[in-house]
Design goal:
Blueprint (H helix, E strand, L loop, with lengths): L7 H20 L4 H16 L5 E5 L5 H8 L3 E6 L2 H10 L3 E4 L2 H5 L7 E7 L6 H13 E11 L2 H4 L8 E3 L16 E3 L2 H10 L4 E5 L12 E5 L1
Parallel strand pairs: 1-2, 1-4, 2-3, 4-5
Antiparallel strand pairs: 5-9, 6-7, 8-9
Helix pairs in contact: 1-4
Length: 224
């Protein structure tokens, strides 16, 4: 894989390509880890903050925004892929907008939220650095940034446990998927450094366990 294929731009290209099969996989409940563990884990983490307003960063087809709206929050969902936002708007429930992470970090939203949540949606490098640095400006005084990501200790696999780009894979998904997105691997300490450098304080780490494997299904970082 060349360096041209290891970039934030390549991630976006992949999601343009895979918006339709991803929407189908989510809405048909095809992804076991989400069904068993991670969907409930992120909803629980957000609701623990009792938010009135939520920003869902990288909202995709909108399932999390809808779930939080059903529980009384007013949710804005943003995604850079117009076709995903279109699918989200089909089912409604939240205010869905096409917006890039770079635009968000640059101040495109003149609003503050009780929770800014990113559910497996911070997989790039520079765009994620900028967004996390900008997060304090998006939060109300008691607001929280909540990130759910692949658990670094599990996700590193056979690779060295160091930050860096990794090739993507659709293993376990249907043949409708193609052109997998690369992703930027971060260690736990790297995530913490990034968040603290942005002016936030880690207040909780959660490690939801997959009941089938007994291993962490994800890492959830809560900062305020």
């Amino acid at each position: 894989m060349t360096n041209d294929h290891l970039s934030d731009a390549k991630i976006i290209d992949s999601w343009h390509t895979n918006a339709a099969p991803w929407t189908d996989a989510v809405r048909n409940d095809e992804i076991e880890s989400r069904r068993l563990v991670t969907n409930a884990a992120i909803v629980d983490a957000v609701l623990a903050r009792a938010p009135s307003t939520v920003l869902d960063v990288g909202c995709g087809e909108g399932w999390l925004a809808r779930a939080l709206c059903e529980r009384g929050a007013r949710v804005t969902g943003i995604d850079v892929v117009p076709s995903l936002v279109d699918r989200a708007r089909e089912l409604g429930g939240a205010d869905f907008r096409v917006l890039s992470y770079e635009a968000l970090a640059a101040g495109a939203l003149d609003e503050r939220f009780d929770v800014v949540v990113a559910n497996f949606s911070l997989i790039g490098e520079q765009s994620v650095d900028a967004l996390v640095a900008a997060a304090p400006r998006l939060l109300t005084p008691r607001g929280a940034l909540i990130i759910q990501t692949l658990h670094p200790v599990v996700a590193t696999g056979e690779h060295p446990y160091v930050d860096g780009w990794r090739a993507g894979s659709w293993a376990g998904f249907s043949s409708a998927f193609s052109d997998p997105a690369p992703w930027y691997f971060r260690t736990i300490s790297s995530w913490i450094r990034l968040i603290v450098a942005g002016g936030l304080r880690i207040v909780e780490l959660r490690e939801p366990i997959n009941p089938k494997t007994g291993r962490p299904a994800s890492l959830i970082l809560v900062s305020s």
